[in-house]
Design brief:
Layout (H helix, E strand, L loop, with lengths): L5 E4 L17 E4 L6 E3 L4 E5 L2 E4 L13 E7 L1 H7 L1 E3 L4 E3 L8 E6 L5 E3 L4 E9 L28
Length: 156
Amino acid sequence: MKTIIKIKRLRENAKIPSYATEGSAGADLASAADEPIVIPAGGRALIPTGIAAEASCQDPSCGADCGAALMIYARSGLASKYGIALANGVGVVDSDYRGEILVSLVNLSDKEYAVSPGERIAQLVVTPVIRAVFEEADNLDGTDRGAGGFGSTGKA
């Protein structure tokens, strides 16, 4: 099964997302900035990727207008080695968004970090979307867990 995501370059130096290995779940997103962008210790910066995407499902096996979203995740190496993560935890590119994909990075370290042009800054994961119908209800079906949350199932 092949899902096609159309990518439009908005900047000359933009890179089309690509998978680093056969088993990669996320395709690498790269900075399309014209010069390094310095993120101060504890600071944030919005990094341009220079691309726009059409994230609607193009695979006929999933039926009419099945829907997809592009999820942006941190690169584990940047996070663990340099403290560079996504400012919003996980970015969501909705299927009807056609603007430039920007990545909001936060520097959790005590040293400034310079994002170089062309540097891989995040990973892009294609995710199917199920749109629900939300109905108000007076009662919900019971479960063993009930309303227990925030560690109610134990530590181990």
